[in-house]
Structure formats: structure tokens, C-alpha cells
Amino acid sequence: MAEFLIKMADERGHVLQQVENGVSAQEIRDRFVQQGFLVYSVKGRAGLLPFGGRGLRKKILKPDQFVIFNQQFLTLIKAGLPILKSLSVLSKRQKNPGFKAMLENIQERVKSGELLSEAFEAQGTVTKIYTTTLLAGERSGNLEEVLGRYIAFQRISVSFRKKLLASLWYPGLLITALTVMLTFLMTYVVPQFADLYSSLHAELPVITLFMLNIGRGIQHYYYLIIGGLALLVLGTIAWVRSVCFRCTPECFHRESLCFGKLWDYREIRTPSARRYLSLTLRPEGISSSRRRLLYSSPMAPGVPGIPSSAENSNDRMSVAQNEWPVRGRILMARINGTNEDPWEKKPLTGGVALVTGGSRGIGRAIAHRLALLGACVSICGRDRAALEESARELAKIGGPVHSQIADITKPADVTDLVAKTESTLAPITILVNNAGIGLFGPAHEKTEADWDRVLDTNLKSVFLVSRAVAPSMIRRGSGDIINISSLAGKNTFAGGGIYCASKWGVLGLSGCMAEDLREHGIRVSVICPGSVATDFSGRSPKDASKVLSPEDVAHAVEAIVIQGPRSFLSEIHLRPLRKP
């Protein structure tokens, strides 16, 4: 951990100043603010020294070590590990205590609902281009590819820095030797010749007199010149050790604008570096087929739903030509899946979906479909045997799975379910409120307990689970909440009094939630299926071809979650093709 000098005032108004150890200045500030202190300033102790102290050097990894960390991080993500688990694995393997503490702090921040880019930016030890890279990956749903391009560019940057330093050694040595020789000539040789010419009563040339005056000036003010050279050397060392020089030439370009346009990343001749920067710094350069990842924002500005060429033409070659500068190759029309991109098969890779009532029927089909799309899935239910069977089926797909016995009509069970899902997997990005029961018959023949049982399961649970998940989604600025209602929420029929009331309530609640949360980037949708072939009603349909299957509802959920980021499907009515 690095050392920081903090200046603060206590509740009596006494001003205090002391040195504290911490991961970052923000972490120190938050710690003392929570203790009731008024914090004036927090400064790294290394920043008080002329060229940075050892605390700063311990705090910052070398560029090549940071590249290795990102390569390991990318490998774990590609292997299917959630981001929180990947950070945990890497922090345990870190030998650098400062960086290990920083990773642990980042892990806690992500667990609390912060974006990964925000957690890194709060540490104050990484460059802006890195946090921008993470943000671009989060917003576009393509963190793996964007991070891979950052690593490729960073390797170029590290190689450039090493070659630059290596190439400067010889010129620096020559310049130093020339400086020493000139100083010796002007401070010793020229004055000796001046004395010789003076003894001969000869007149010195103008250029010799000029050099003689410079030499005498150096002799009189040598201590000031030595001091200035020492400051120049210390300043150069401080710049070389700084985050700006060590991390990326992009930062060097940004910080050196006061000296003029020394270098511009837009003039890079290396294709891979140019493609990386075009993706990272221009959101519109990101492929539209990679939309959603953990913390992806459906309302992210500047990310188009589809390429402009695809909007105006069905010519597949035009789409390929439109994307080839980004991907580095021309994609011909796909024949037999030869050129298929695996990302298009798993658009939810890295996301976390919670499906209530996921042990059977519609819930099981939805959980299975989301897992096939690449999401980590959490399911809950009250039937242990059915829940375990459903979890085993999901585990066969290959992604992380969490299953838990829970009564979602009870606030305590809901809180525990959400907390364990996010600690086991990651913050929830998709919530499907599917749990429901049916109780049919004339309303006047039902008891109050019947009413409470149906309304609590079908309506109150939607409120409780959504309320528990929404704050985390609001902090991240993205998320999908999908409520499974019914066409019974749009129509009435004999014997459906209590059930219709609950489903009409779900429609009303969903509409209001959609208006409340859309400004936070959260999409609330409702699906109204007709009769579905499950054991929900306790009787089998006479003709299975005239009712929906659970997979039909799961397909509607898929349509909602892969919808373009600038729009959402607010309500879907689902009917069988053949009339019952």
C-alpha cells in the first residue's frame, strides 16, 4: 500500500494532519468521511518529493507486468469465469502487495455494484485510456475483444518505450561527452590562450572573445549551472517514473500539449494499433453484433443498433465491407457456418440472469435458453428435487449456475437470494419474474387465504424481487426486468377472478416500473402468453398443437434481451398459431 498525507478536521474543528496507508486517495478519503471527519485534502507522499518516492513506485506496476495481468484477466474471462471470480483468482496470485490490495478493493467495489471501469478509475493509478477501454467494452457488450485490442496496443507501446530508451543511450552519451569537452575548452583552454595572447600584446578575434566571456561566466556561476542541470536530471527521472511515461504514449501525447504537437495517435502506421484506437475512442466503431456483456447499457449513447449499410440494404457483402477495417478481414456471405463468429451465438456472455420459478415449466425453459445465450444463471423454487434437476441440466451447458430454495413472497428470502446470487456469480443484469400459481373458480367461493396465496405469489413477488435487484441496476445504468404475465391480464373469463386480478396487477406494475426505470437505462418488459402446455393448471391440453410450449415463451425472452440497445419491447402478446 502507498502512503498518503491527509489533512482533515474533527467534530470540534481541530485541524489534523497525518500519514495513512491505503490503496488510493479516494479510499482514504471515504474511510475518514465515514468516521465523521471533514477531509480537506489527501495527497500521496510521493507527490511531495521532487521526483516521486518509493511509495509511488510500489503502487504502480511496470507496464509489461500490467500487460501480463490483463492477459491473464482476459484468459479467465474467455474461459467462462465471471469477472468477480477472475479478480479474486488474480488477487490471490499477486506477489506485489500494493497491487494485490488494489485488486481486492476493485473486487469489493464491483461486488457493491460499481462498473469495472469505475472501480479501476477510483484507484487513481491507471491511465484514462485504460478506464475508457473498459467502459467501451462494458457499454458495447464486447469487453473481451476491446480488452484484447488494448493488450495488443499496449505491447506496441511497451516495445516502443524500450526501443526509444535504447536508441537514446548512444546519442545521450555523445551529447554528454561533447558537453564536457566544450565546457573544458571554454573554461580552461580558451582562458589559457587568452593569457598567452595578452602576454604577447596581441588582439584576440571576436569569436574568441565571445567564447572567453562565456567561459568566465561559467566559472563565476558554475554552482547555479550545476544546480540547474541537477534539476533537469531529476525532472527527467520524475517524468520517466511517472504514470504518464510508464503506461502509454497516448498519455504522453495528452500531457505534453504545452510543448506543441509532438505526436498524434491518429498518425500511427501500425494497423492493429490504429484499429484498437478506433474501437476504443469511437463507440460507433464497435460491431453491432456484440451488444451485451456484464453491465452492458441498453441506453448507451452513440452505439448504433446496426451498421448503416445494413439499415439501407440487404446486400450481405456491403455489411462485410463495412466491417472489414475493424475486424481486419472481409467477411464473405456465410456458407455452412465457415465464417460464423462465436460471439453471435452467445450474446449474453458474462451476464447474470435470475429466473424465479426456474425449477420447472416456463421458468426452466427460460433459464435453459439464457444459459445457451451465454449468461450465468441463478434459479430459485420451493421444490428441492425439481430445482436440483433443473440445476444439473443447466450445468451441462457449461456456464456457472446458482440454485437456491426460496419463498419469494417473503422479503427476507428475496434479500438472501439476491445477495447470494451476486456474491456467487456477479451483479444481476437480467431478472425474469416468472414464478406464479393458478387457482380457478368463482371468486365468491374462494377464501381470503386463497386470495392472499395467489396475489402474493403472482404479484407481490414481482414487487419484492424487482425492488431488491433495481438499485444495483440503477448504479450500473443498465439491466433487463422481464415479468411473465398472461393474456388473462388483458381479458376476463368465468372462474378466473383471482388469477385475472393478479395478472392485471402485473401488467399495471410493469408499465409503471418501465416509466420509472427507463431513465436509468433499465428496460422493463412484460410477456403475456396464452395457454402453455405445462402442469400449471393441473390438466393436460386436449390438443397440444393448439397451445404454446414453454420454449415459445423462452424465445420471447430471448427476443427481449438481444433487442438493440436504443429500444426495448415493452409488451409481447404470445398466442398459438392455431386457434384452440
Record the SSE blueprint.
Elements: E1 2-9, E2 15-22, H1 25-34, E3 38-44, H2 54-59, H3 63-78, H4 83-93, H5 97-111, H6 116-123, H7 128-140, H8 143-199, H9 206-220, H10 222-241, H11 243-247, H12 249-255, H13 271-281, H14 308-312, H15 316-327, H16 342-345, E4 352-356, H17 361-372, E5 376-381, H18 384-397, E6 401-405, H19 411-424, E7 430-433, H20 448-476, E8 479-484, H21 497-517, E9 522-529, H22 550-561, E10 571-574
Parallel strand pairs: 4-5, 4-7, 5-6, 7-8, 8-9, 9-10
Antiparallel strand pairs: 1-2, 1-3
What does this structure look like?
With 580 residues, the chain is an alpha/beta fold. The protein folds into five domains: 2-57; 60-126, no CATH class; 153-265, no CATH class; 308-344, no CATH class; 346-574, Rossmann fold. Helices cover 55% and strands 11% of the residues. The protein has 22 helices and ten strands. The protein has a seven-stranded parallel sheet, with helices on both faces. Strands 2-1-3 form a three-stranded antiparallel sheet. Helix 18 links the parallel strand 5 (376-381) and strand 6 (401-405). Helix 8 packs across helix 9. The radius of gyration is 33 Å and the shape is elongated. The N and C termini lie far apart (69 Å).
